[in-house]
Design goal:
Layout (H helix, E strand, L loop, with lengths): L19 H5 L7 E5 L5 H9 L4 E5 L3 H10 L6 E4 L2 E2 L4 E10 L23 H4 L3 E12 L1 H6 L7 E6 L5 H6 L2 H7 E8 L1 E2 L2 E2 L7 H7 L3 E7 L6 E7 L4
Parallel strand pairs: 1-2, 1-7, 2-3, 4-6, 7-8
Antiparallel strand pairs: 5-6, 8-12, 9-10, 11-12
C-alpha cells in the first residue's frame, strides 16, 4: 500500500529502532502487533508507546517470564498476554529453562528466564558462559495457524515481532499460512551463523528466508557473529 516504503538493505550490529515502523505505516495508527517470546513485555510496551491505538498480543510460555510480565507490563491496557509457546505442536512441548546470577533486570527478579527455549542449548553455553540451563519441563504450545483459527476476528497482523531463542523453524512451520497471508512485516531472530548454532538445530538467516519465499529481506540488525535479527516484508499487498 502507499503507506509502506522500501528500506535500504543493511547489516548492522545495532538494535533496530522501532520507530522505523512509523515510516512503514505512515497513515495507520491502529496496528495489530504480535510480540512472540515477550519475556517481561518490554518490546510490547515500546510498541504501545509508539502506536498507542494498536492492539498487541504478547505470547510467553515460561512461567517465570509470565510472572515477571505481570509485575512489569500488565498495566498497559492495549497489551494482551497469551500464556503459550508458538511452535509446530498443539499440546505440550519440552522447555529448556535458563538461569543466570548476573543478568537479572529487576531487583525483585529471582531467576533469568530470557534465554529459555524449546531447543537444547549448544554454542550458547560457550558464548554466554554465565547462563546455565539446569531445568527441563513441559509448557503449553500451540501452532500460530491454530491460534489464528481460534481468533477469526484478527484479519491482518501488521508487525510480527519474534524472539523464540532457537525455536524459529518450529515457529515458522506452525504458522506458514498465517505468515504468508496475514503478516505484513516480520522481525525474527536467527541463532545460527558462521557454522555455529546457539541452540541445537536452529536455522540460519538464509534458511529462514528460504522458508519464507513470500517475504523480502529489508535488513539484518544486531548481528553479533553467532546470531542476529532480520526484518522481512511480505511481498503480498494487503
Amino acid at each position: 500500500t502507499k503507506s509502506r516504503i522500501k528500506l535500504p538493505n543493511m547489516i548492522t550490529d545495532t538494535e533496530i529502532n522501532k520507530n522505523i515502523f512509523k515510516k512503514l505505516f505512515l497513515n495507520k495508527e491502529d496496528l495489530t502487533i504480535f510480540d512472540v517470546g515477550t519475556y517481561d513485555g518490554n518490546d510490547s510496551t515500546e510498541f504501545s508507546k509508539i502506536f498507542p491505538k494498536s492492539k498487541i498480543y504478547a505470547f510467553e510460555a515460561d512461567q517465570r517470564s509470565i510472572n515477571l510480565f505481570k509485575k512489569v507490563s500488565s498495566n498497559v491496557k492495549n497489551i494482551n498476554l497469551v500464556e503459550t509457546a508458538l511452535s509446530n505442536i498443539d499440546g505440550e512441548i519440552t522447555w529448556y529453562a535458563s538461569n543466570s546470577e548476573t543478568r537479572k533486570h529487576y531487583d525483585f527478579q529471582e531467576e533469568w528466564s530470557a534465554s529459555s527455549s524449546i531447543k537444547k542449548p549448544e554454542n550458547h553455553l560457550n558464548v554466554f558462559t554465565d547462563i546455565s540451563f539446569s531445568m527441563e519441563n513441559k509448557v503449553k504450545s500451540i501452532k500460530l495457524d491454530t491460534w489464528m483459527s481460534q481468533n477469526p476476528n484478527i484479519n491482518e497482523i501488521d508487525i510480527m515481532w519474534v524472539d523464540v531463542n532457537g525455536g524459529e523453524r518450529e515457529f515458522l512451520e506452525g504458522g506458514l499460512n498465517t505468515l504468508n497471508t496475514k503478516v505484513k512485516y516480520l522481525y525474527i531472530e536467527f541463532n545460527s551463523a558462521n557454522n555455529k548454532s546457539l541452540y541445537e538445530g536452529c536455522p540460519t538467516k538464509d534458511e529462514i528466508t528460504q522458508q519464507l519465499s513470500n517475504f523480502e529481506d529489508l535488513g539484518v540488525y544486531n548481528f553479533m557473529g553467532n546470531f542476529g535479527n532480520i526484518l522481512l516484508k511480505n511481498k503480498h499487498e494487503f
